[in-house]
């Protein structure tokens, strides 16, 4: 009875909502609603012929028409690594008026080149010469060649050493992404019970569900491989990495509405692939746990059904942890994930620098198996571009 009366439990740090007296009834209601939605989706998919499905893939993979909102979003992102400690991260997000939120990281772990980053970083604002419906700006171009199969990444321009920004390098990159693995659509493939529990944490109202609809974004991910060549100051390097690729688009994305998120993307030595995340978007979902596991043995993708990683337990002051662990469940199997961060470069996203994003290159261990990949960690930056002066004075 005391639990039922506790209908106004205070959020942790006034941000992360906790279960109240109506939590489990709300979980039950939302689970039923999501189950019905999932059933209709499966029926629709089963009745769809191959030609229609191929058109759906083609429409999904192309650059989307931007909405009339001031801050529409259409973003493609690659995060790749291999067991040797090499990394490549590419991000291009189309916005209005020819603005591309773009960035590039390249690490050749040979003891000489090290970690290179886009010449403009920590600023991610790239501009097209004229506004085009392409993921391209200032020497960086990402293009779909075959839906759900092949993408091309091209870059020609300067990059700088992350540890010594005064050192610049001429970089010529020609990389091909290929995949024969299934993609995971966050609209339809997330575990509905875990999603129901995340939604039940929030205060429901007509306005709440209106906000959910307004801020909805389509997001899907697919694992594959990156192969190609990079020329750095005339020296040739071959690229061969496992890669996660995603595509996100929606009516609008205002980075200032994101409080914090943490996303892990990695591969283990047995060929399994993992995406594990927790997103704090306080106006709709203060703890949205997402992700999936591709099992190489089963050749199947399983949604994560349990994740004990809590955002409020890590780095709320703005400094993310460099070693941590968590447990997830997917496909009826439990995975104990240990993370050791090797590099922590960062940038400020969008033209007003609303958020600080750490692209953390990591070593992983999952149930005793070694892994490699990245942890992307975001924090709200309330100071905007003034943060540079603050950090300079603090140093």
From TrEMBL:
<protein>
    <submittedName>
        <fullName>Uncharacterized protein</fullName>
    </submittedName>
</protein>
<keyword id="KW-0472">Membrane</keyword>
<feature type="transmembrane region" description="Helical">
    <location>
        <begin position="21"/>
        <end position="40"/>
    </location>
</feature>
<keyword id="KW-1133">Transmembrane helix</keyword>
<keyword id="KW-0812">Transmembrane</keyword>
């Amino acid at each position: 009875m005391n639990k039922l009366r506790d209908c106004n439990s205070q959020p942790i740090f006034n941000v992360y909502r906790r279960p109240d007296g109506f939590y489990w009834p709300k979980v039950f209601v939302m689970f039923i609603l999501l189950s019905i939605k999932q059933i209709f989706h499966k029926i629709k998919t089963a009745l769809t012929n191959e030609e229609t499905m191929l058109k759906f893939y083609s429409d999904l993979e192309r650059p989307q028409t931007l909405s009339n909102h001031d801050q529409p979003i259409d973003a493609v992102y690659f995060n790749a690594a291999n067991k040797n400690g090499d990394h490549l991260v590419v991000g291009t997000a189309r916005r209005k008026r020819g603005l591309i939120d773009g960035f590039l990281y390249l690490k050749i772990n040979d003891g000489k080149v090290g970690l290179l980053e886009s010449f403009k970083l920590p600023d991610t604002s790239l501009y097209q010469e004229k506004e085009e419906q392409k993921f391209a700006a200032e020497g960086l171009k990402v293009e779909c060649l075959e839906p759900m199969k092949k993408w091309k990444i091209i870059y020609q321009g300067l990059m700088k050493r992350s540890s010594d920004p005064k050192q610049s390098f001429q970089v010529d990159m020609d990389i091909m992404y290929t995949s024969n693995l299934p993609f995971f659509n966050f609209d339809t493939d997330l575990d509905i019970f875990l999603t129901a529990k995340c939604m039940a944490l929030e205060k429901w109202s007509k306005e709440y569900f209106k906000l959910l609809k307004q801020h909805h974004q389509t997001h899907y991910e697919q694992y594959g491989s990156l192969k190609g060549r990079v020329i750095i100051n005339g020296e040739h390097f071959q690229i061969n990495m496992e890669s996660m690729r995603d595509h996100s688009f929606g009516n609008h994305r205002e980075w200032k509405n994101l409080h914090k998120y943490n996303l892990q993307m990695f591969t283990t030595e047995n060929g399994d692939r993992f995406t594990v995340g927790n997103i704090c978007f306080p106006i709709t979902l203060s703890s949205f746990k997402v992700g999936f596991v591709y099992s190489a043995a089963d050749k199947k993708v399983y949604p994560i059904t349990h994740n004990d990683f809590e955002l409020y337990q890590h780095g709320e002051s703005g400094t993310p942890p460099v070693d941590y662990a968590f447990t997830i469940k997917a496909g009826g199997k439990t995975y104990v994930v240990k993370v050791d961060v090797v590099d922590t470069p960062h940038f400020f996203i969008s033209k007003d620098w609303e958020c600080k994003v750490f692209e953390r290159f990591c070593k992983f261990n999952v149930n005793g198996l070694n892994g490699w990949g990245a942890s992307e960690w975001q924090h709200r930056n309330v100071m905007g571009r003034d943060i540079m002066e603050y950090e300079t004075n603090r140093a």
